Amino acid sequence: MKFFSKSRLWLMAIFVLGLVVLGSGYRLLTWTDAQTAYYDAGIAKYQTAQEADDMKMAIDFLDKSVSVYKMRSRTSTWLDRLLYPAPSREQAALAQFHKAKALLRLRQAEPAVEAFKESLRLNPGNDYSNLVGLDQASKEDVVRLTEAALQTKYDLELLFKNNKQQAEGQGKGKGKGKPQPGQGKKQAPGQEPGDTPGKGKPNTL
Question: Which of 25, 108, 141, 172 would staple 103 via disulfide (CB 3.0–4.6 Å)?
Fold first, then answer.
């Protein structure tokens, strides 16, 4: 009787373990990366936008992508970390970068500045070994991340150059004196920045 009870207990334990493994396998099989799905939808909508409402929808998708990143970064359990890929800090930085581009298309310079700055907070272009989510970056990753951060910084500076009011609001552009020959023209924001920073023309936003 004692032996039977012990065997039954083992069978129950194996059955429960099997259910856990089966459930985890099903979750992994049916899981979709919402961060990437929203990001891809935002990029696609941006590239095909014909009206302001389309551009606003692109921004909404990109915002949702960043929200998923932040939520998963805060609330992921050990089981989530075991089963699923980690949320992408690099992709969150790219989402903010493209959000800034979309805002510029809507001529909303102030929120575009904030989006560029948030992109640089996520990917500052240095000290990757101390950044959660980027601390395991390979040499190739660091090169790509650094180039993306440099493009974001360049576009932010170009925005300040084209928008004196924004530059003064950020403490830039004071004490510059008279403009030098050839400095009077504004550079127009680019229309097709590409899927990643640095793919467009170097002198356009």
Answer: 108
